[in-house]
Amino acid sequence: MSTGIASVAEVAEPAVGEVSGTRELLRRFAHHRLALVGSVVLVLLVIACFGAPWIAPAKQGAQDLALGPTSPSWSHLLGTDQLGRDYLSELLYAGRISLAIGFFVALVATTVGTAVGAVAGYVGGVVGEAIMRLTDLFLIVPAIAILAVALKGLGSSPVTIVLVLSGISWTYIARVVRSQVLSLSEKEFIEAARVIGASTPRILVRHMLPNLAGIIAVNISLATASAIIIESTLSFLGFGVQPPRTSWGNMLSQASGLVGTPQVYLLYFPGLFILVTVLCVNFIGDGLRDALDPQGRQL
Amino acid sequence: MLRSPRASAVLAAVAGLLLVASACSSNSSANSSGSETTATAARNGGSIVIGAEQEPDCADWLGTCAGSIWGNYIMQIETVPSAFDTRKVNGKWVPQASDLLAGDPTVATTGGKQTITYKINPKAVWSDGTPISSADFAYTALQVRDGKDIFDKSGYSDIEKVTTPDPKTAVVTMKTPYASWRQLFSNGYGVLPAHILKGKNRDALMKDGYTWSGGPWIIQSWKRGTSVTLVPNDKYWGTKPHLDKVTFQFITDTAAAFQALKSGQVDALYPSPQLDALSQIKAGIPDTKSQVDPVTGNLEAIWLNNAKFPFDSQSVRQALAYSIDRDAITKRLFGVIGVDKAAQSFFTPIIGGFGESAFQKYTLDLDKVKSLMTGDGWAKDSSGYWAKGGKRASFAVETLAGNKRRDLTLQILQAQFKTAGFQMTIHETTPATLFGKTAPNGDFQAGLYTLIDTFPEPLNLSATFKSSAIPSKANGYSGINFDRVNIPGLDPVLDQIDSDVDQTQRVEASKKADQMLADAVPAIPIDDVPNVLLWSTRLGGEISINPSEGPFWNLNEWGLAK
Amino acid sequence: MIAYTVRRILLSAPIVLIASFVLFVAVRATFDPLGKLRQSRDPSVIHRETERLGLNKSVPEQFLLWLKGFLTGDWGVSSRTGGDVRAMILQALWPTLQLIFWGILFAVIIAGLISIYSAVKQYSLADHTMTALSYVGIALPAFWFGLVLIQFLAVMPRQQFGWANPPLYFVGLHSAGQSGFNLDYVRHLVLPVITLTITLVASWSRFGRASMLDALSSEYVRTARAKGVPRRRIILRHAARNSLAPFVTVVALDAALLFGGLVVTEQIYSIPGMGRLFLDSLLTGDVFVLLPWMLVVACAVVVCNLIADVSYAILDPRVRLR
Known about the structure:
The complex is a heterotrimer of chains A (299), B (562) and C (322).
Chain A: H1 8-12, H2 22-31, H3 33-50, H4 52-55, H5 87-123, H6 125-140, H7 143-154, H8 158-185, H9 188-195, H10 200-237, H11 248-255, H12 265-292
Chain B: H1 5-23, E1 42-43, E2 47-52, H2 69-79, E3 84-89, E4 92-97, E5 106-110, E6 113-119, H3 134-146, E7 159-166, E8 169-174, H4 194-197, H5 202-206, E9 217-223, E10 227-232, E11 245-250, H6 254-262, E12 268-269, H7 275-283, E13 288-293, E14 298-304, H8 314-322, H9 326-334, H10 366-375, E15 379-380, E16 386-388, E17 391-392, E18 394-400, H11 404-420, E19 423-429, H12 431-441, E20 446-452, H13 461-465, H14 490-499, H15 503-520, E21 523-528, E22 531-536, E23 539-540, E24 559-561
Parallel strand pairs in B: 2-11, 2-12, 18-19, 18-20
Antiparallel strand pairs in B: 1-24, 3-4, 5-6, 6-8, 7-8, 9-10, 10-11, 12-22, 13-22, 14-20, 14-21, 15-16, 16-17, 23-24
Chain C: H1 2-30, H2 43-53, H3 59-71, H4 85-120, H5 125-139, H6 142-161, H7 183-216, H8 219-227, H9 231-268, H10 274-284, H11 287-315, H12 317-320
Helix pairs in contact in C: 1-11, 4-5, 4-7, 4-9, 4-10, 4-11, 5-7, 6-7, 6-9, 7-9, 8-9, 9-10, 9-11, 10-11
């Protein structure tokens, strides 16, 4: 298939043609209106949650036992919860954990998955196959089941939650990266690099990685979205974030029995926060995909 | 990809819809539930469905798997005869000889040993026609005393022998005097049919339900995960049931259970007083009556390990008791149903007459906290927590998962302790780990769990507070004084409560014990978890809560309103 | 064809075996099989049960013993209820299978219809609405959505209109005393099925739409159109049929995801299926139910994957020749 050794100049550049300049990327991203809106909303949300100690109307956990739960009003924009705490503040403080877990899981899972997938794809052969069979293992038992058992065994601190969730999520990106690396390995510029004696790590990092940027970026957003939802599901079931630490998921668990009562607003708001967050992340993912890979070649 | 403004508009609309909906929260129903039990007459016939929030694991009442109280509520009470019922006499719950017996058993002391003579009602028969005999008493007693997989043998382990002079008389001889003897052949165990079970594997024959009965009902079917159905026992010698069939449907989800009640899918509910259940009650349920009973046997308390820092000091324990507003906590938890007074004694309300609310003196008093702590050599560190000799007054509270109200209680406690200068963290664990390893080994500083009394006798106190019950090599680590409570002079008082057959003396001793416990503060009682019963106006008959036997204790008197 | 299928089955078997060993070790390490008994006041119970269950043997030995039991149908006794584990799992499978069956049927039909319609009427208002809704659908936490559905479709109508019964039920699969396929059953199914499948419908319809668009703009369709083949035939016979292969694959693969969603759905709607069984067993540390449960589900997922592979091979002959 290869028609000859490419010139040294071409080999030195890690380009296959589509990796454009940053300006071009930003322009394409901004053209995707929803991605723009999503980014703005997400940034605002992140600021509001992580800046909660300064922004939130009430201090974290400021109970007012005599007040109890009250509907949204001007003094408490989203109402108060069962212990009289301002719900908006509690949601913002809880958001720190939900968002942090989401981001870190995405980061760790993508890093590990990319590394493993790239190695498996590039090295190929038996080793590559073996690694992929390993990922098969992770896929046949429902994630929720594995996660619940693992968290029961290892305890449910945010750190273990991130590690356990990452431990499941890396397999998806690994597969995608591997197949991409496999197809890239056939390309001329890689072949050329190999011929001139570039070492494997150099090839992987300098040549492959930029071409994987699109997949990686999109996967980070996908993984964030699914991590946030999975964490909230686990916390809802009782295996995730434990009280007194709050996350949106375990706030929902406390409110699940309130269907049909006037306190049902305690159920709506955490779910809405999750929905909005994940929507924004998905839009950003779409925007990234558009920006980094406008012709949809890699995905 | 979405580039059209239309799509964005649609998305915004959807989000907006949800936000708007949250503003229009559901209206609370105009009809509120009544709160007395003016009994309507019940007619014969008909069937009802009752919502049960927990499905029992198994129906082997004696064995290790029968831990769920709901099994007792919906199957055991209705089918297994007991020697003593728990009934309200002069406003107090007391054990009362049931219709299984032909009168009060006679207690005598012969040769230094306590003997109890039971005379069985000549009319008492099993559902297959075989008369209930002393052989059944003997069988049950020995099953519990000698059985290999019995969870709780207390009382029975002191039985020396059971003799059966005639088929309707059983004589039980105790090795040592046992003042709470009335709980024998009652209190969740009852009397089992020897002619059906003797020589066979009792657990296998009972665990999935059984078709024999010595009570007003027979278990017709148990569809796991779905329902249990009871039908009347024709051979029952007492008041026969009005109803033709009662189905207990398992509905674990609170909202679903209340909806089922509101829509008539179930006719009664006995919800555990979780905050969401109480919200549901407050929102109003039309056409239902309700009863709230603060007199229960469930005491939620903070248990302190008296042998471990920082609770090895009495001053610290007392200071802890002064740092929280227990009335406010109780009011927040149960105020909606009118229960707002904290628990003031380790004698739960169901044990009528014993104890005397000695913990009343512990109200929120930060000055007392200060004087007690500084007097014990503590000083506040830079973060505002008490510290002594470089160690902070910081402790972890062991707790069991799965109880949202308990989670909220812990959060309230944490906040109040913090204000008073104590740093509390929460450590979640399982019952197996907690009661199997952590507590017996003393590897904890504090715990929050419920002490449960199921019978109007002070059965739990010695086991919990006597120094000889501290798990140690001597008792094979089987004692349940997990808190390592060792109060000088308390042991003999507890012994008297256990063994003195004279009721007045026992009550005097109990008041003394209460005071001693309140002075030493080995643990802090917080709230007595009240019971709530809701039933549709379509039901008639004498419907009420029995804190020992559950709300269905007199299911044979329930019926459809005339 | 057969060779292909057999080859795939043989490849899957070792994976399941290894997975079961890993799970065995993990579950045994996490949960104490005698946990419940440690609360017992009878010290000899622990010793007796350790002997009976062979817990003093080495881990590989225990695993082989357990595996042998599993393969011969002896799945042990639950430490929670004392019941036969195999019976419990089989009994729990029935409601779960019903949910899965109706769920997939519903999701495939709705997603299929949406895909075809959206692709054909691209950029119309309907298309944009569907796309917007599918974005929301993918971003929803399904359990929250289920609870909101209960509030809006069952509880609120009943309250507002003063009906005796809510229009849609949300406890179990049948009302007390009812059984069989009737209106009562359908009223019980609607909410759980929607909750279970909302995310799948959303993602499948997006995927299907893209797939249909691809097919509609492909050369053979352009050829057919040039030839004057009627529109409907093009859509259904050519475009839809050719996007079927990837669609079916995605469906079969995602079906495995359903098991995860089942846990929450059964919890919310009080359905006594596999999801509830898992939760009950997990909360009480009932090792004896957890392991067979995981194996059964793993096998089911492997079967789903197999169906995906095989049906792809059937629908796309090019694959078989690899």
